[in-house]
Design brief:
Length: 330
């Protein structure tokens, strides 16, 4: 027997928070719904983390409503399980009911993942939207490697998928705080209507959380001052610190690109706020390039790093300008 849920297409427009969302968004669009209500359910806040070698600058996501609640408000429900021993049968039953399935897996057991297969244990989600008993395969949406946003339709053997699912549970989902590892999604018949339009709703949520957002921005100034002090002493940053900061910068830029994408969906991409955000992304990209060059060359050049405090200060001022413009929009 064969059953494939269609149409369902990979989501490669942005990487949003975690692979869970990039597995979920194709499901939302399959149900002919907008992903925008989920995007404007979250906002990003700068944060710092102290480590032995200094202070790391990163970003975190805050949520207005729990994902399950936001999905129900959108018109989608999820049947969730922490662990399903008969996962193959349960997936097939879900597909037969036109319910796409998202699973947490360990990429160590995913043969198509040449970057991780039998090399690296990595928690990850995949979207299952079909099966074919004649080939003993599942139809999935998966990407090819960690560094690239390259989700595509693939097939995977039933046994391989089961091993990857069980491996996730064994490697990453033990202990008292066990998370859901299996989700099957279906469309609800009744959808709650929104009192505010989406742009106004996101604006109001942002305004309500400006104290937290501003506190995060103030931490940028702390980073700038600490970095300036190190440079004045001509103290090289440790490679370990630089590697950790590079990871944080990658996530930070992805978050800012996602913020830009939200504005496009809200149809306010021509507003001054968008141009300001583009400048912020560009500044962070320059900072990332400087840190990456140091990580990969292992050569610390003070003259390259000396521009970082000013660039961070520029970002701080641009962020304040961005929120002022965005919140004044009518």
């Amino acid at each position: 027997m064969q059953k494939i849920i269609e149409p369902i297409e990979p989501f490669n427009e942005i990487y949003y928070q975690s692979c869970l969302y990039n597995s979920l968004f194709p499901v939302i669009r399959h149900f002919q719904l907008s992903i925008l209500p989920l995007l404007i359910n979250d906002w990003a806040v700068y944060e710092t983390n102290r480590i032995g070698g200094g202070v790391l600058c990163g970003i975190s996501h805050r949520t207005n409503k729990d994902l399950s609640e936001a999905l129900v408000e959108l018109g989608v429900a999820a049947e969730k399980e922490q662990f399903v021993r008969t996962v193959v049968d349960k997936i097939k039953n879900a597909i037969d009911m036109e319910r796409p399935v998202v699973l947490w897996v360990d990429c160590y057991e995913i043969p198509m993942r040449k970057d991780t297969f039998q090399k690296k244990h990595l928690p990850h989600t995949i979207l299952v939207h079909g099966y074919d008993d004649s080939t003993d395969n599942f139809h999935i949406i998966e990407h090819l490697q960690m560094e690239n946003l390259s989700y595509d339709k693939k097939t995977i053997g039933v046994d391989a998928l089961e091993r990857a699912y069980f491996a996730f549970d064994y490697k990453f989902n033990q202990g008292p705080m066990k998370q859901d590892s299996y989700y099957e999604f279906y469309k609800l018949n009744q959808v709650n209507s929104m009192a505010l339009d989406e742009a106004e709703k996101y604006q109001e949520m942002t305004r309500a959380n400006m104290n937290v957002i501003t506190a995060g921005l103030e931490q940028l100034l702390e980073i700038s001052e600490l970095l300036y002090g190190k440079l004045m002493q001509k103290t090289p940053l440790s490679i370990d610190y630089a590697e950790q900061q590079l990871d944080k910068l990658n996530s930070l830029i992805l978050a800012k690109q996602a913020e830009r994408y939200k504005l496009e969906l809200l149809q306010i991409e021509q507003e001054p706020a968008c141009a300001i955000l583009d400048g912020i992304i560009n500044e962070w990209s320059i900072i990332r390039a400087i840190v990456a060059k140091y990580v990969y060359s292992n050569q610390f050049k003070v003259e390259q790093f000396s521009q970082l405090p000013d660039r961070i200060n520029n970002i701080y001022n641009a962020e304040l300008n961005f929120y002022e413009n965005f919140l004044l929009k009518k």
